[in-house]
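for the writeup, i need someone to sanity check this before i put it in the appendix. the sequnce is what the collaborator sent (i think, or maybe the updated version? ugh). structure was predicted straight from it, no edits. if anything looks off just tell me and ill rerun, i have time this weekend
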Amino acid sequence: MANNKNQHFVPRCYLRAFTQDGESLAINLLNLRLERAIASAPVKNQCSGDYFYGQDDRLEAAIRAVEGSYASVVAKILTPRYELNGDDKSALRIFMLFQHMRTEAASRRLVEMFAGMEQKFGVPLPDVRPSVKEAVQMAMRAFGEQMDLFSDLKICLIRNRTKKPFLTSDDPAVVANRWHKEDLRTRNLSPGLMSCGTTVFLPLNPRILCIAYDGDVYSIPHERGWTEMRDEADVAACNEQQFLNAWANVYFQDWNDHQWVRGSYQAVQSRRLGSRHRVTYAVLDKSDERHKRYRVVERPEAHAHDEALLHTQSLSPTPSRWPNLLRWRAKGHVFTNGSGAGYIRAAKTAFRRSADFWREPSRR
């Protein structure tokens, strides 16, 4: 049985940097549903639940190992004249993936997808619909099998030189994809974690943000793993990723910023998605010896057909802008085999051994 009943899906070692005076006792937050700022909320009650990961002490030990590695790296990052090295990059990539997959928000989105399927079918699916905790445990098993999904991404640390802080949230490792949003070739495709153009934003504290990115598509000029952000509009672009991705709360360190945080959220809240999945029901329309054609219908019409397809598509919000330092790479490129797999990063095409991928320019 797990030793700790109250288990955090955003660890206290992460949130500590955003707490009041860095003491890991109280933290300021903006509740997005209420649009209300709350001062000095107890950290122990944030981003946690009773036996959130179940009661497997081996899993709990593995989680502590990932969190401990992250805490050690951040402690080094805060030392004078720190230079980003390969081992620390690897630890940051693993924590980013782990944090992205394990939050309540990520698990509720999976449950939401099954709810959408039930709505389309018109019947409950109790045997396949997971609970939030079951979804978390599914994500943990997937993480254990796919820990290297971000291993090819480049890593850069951004030092905030403006007067405005980086914010974080209850789902802080934000996976976004500017290239996928803007290139016409990806129309009607949903990006995955292996997709070309993947970017991950993770604030480490109010003054430092870590970004992982597809180096075949983007370029971030840096020196020894560091670059600087001097434009408050770029800080706002990074914070917008938190506002659009958070499940319930955004966190900030200085209570004097609470009106600015609330106003920043209100400026972009219309871009948040009500649902992160689209479920489509299609019935057999016509067929011949070689092909079948399906037609999208609403549920009442679906019951009159014997053969149907159910298609689920992940959705992601589109920010109002992207930080200027995330530049397009000169002569950048992407990889595809023309199938529904879409555009997969070169280092990840090995997962599709049966398919022949070809290289295309990332910008046309």
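The chain is about 30% helix and 25% strand. Residues 279-311 form one domain.
thx in advance!!
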